[in-house]
Amino acid sequence: MGFCIILVGGIFMNKRSMFWGILLIVVGILFLGRNMNWWDFSIFFDGWWTLFLIVPSIISLVRKEGMASSFLILALGVLMLLASQNVIEWSMIWKIFVPLIIIVVGLSIIFGNRRGRKPKANAKEYVAIFSSVDEMIGKIESDFKVTSVFGGVELDMRDVKLEEDLVIDCFTLFGGIDIRLPKDVKVEVNGLPIFGGVENKYRNNDEAKVTIYINHTTIFGGVDLI
Q: The pTM is what?
């Protein structure tokens, strides 16, 4: 049985199913060792379900995907496992986890602003705080910034003709930003997602001479590129 599970895990190992592949391999090795009397274990130990938080978050950290959110998910999984094993009280989880979220968010805002290409000093700003902004842009003269805090921003740039590279800084906290990009440009995305992220639906023109650089800090929110 253990050999079969290891074989299945190896066959289905690829980028999209890496988590399940590794999980099957680990489970297969555990069963193989138990069948060969190398060790004894029970797969349903107290808090075994926390592995569904811990394992994928470790994989994401190794692959450097969504570092901040992966770290927070890993921390939550470990805290829940410790509580299940009666190492800490369940009430301690949120006493530790909530301040940890605040710390990680603060660090992400500080260090996130240092990553990627920087906008020019005269960058225009679109701000929606507990409100919404919906604008069709016909001409762009410089880089710009977009901020959405408990609000939404929709910018339509499809009629814009860019002659030089453009930098767009996006910050969203419990909000959303939708940007419709012009044709025939390249898009590069860089940032730190914290329980959020960027959904890039735009089709790059790899031969384009103009590049749009999207810098983002997404905290419980998202940016859609269309």
A: 0.62
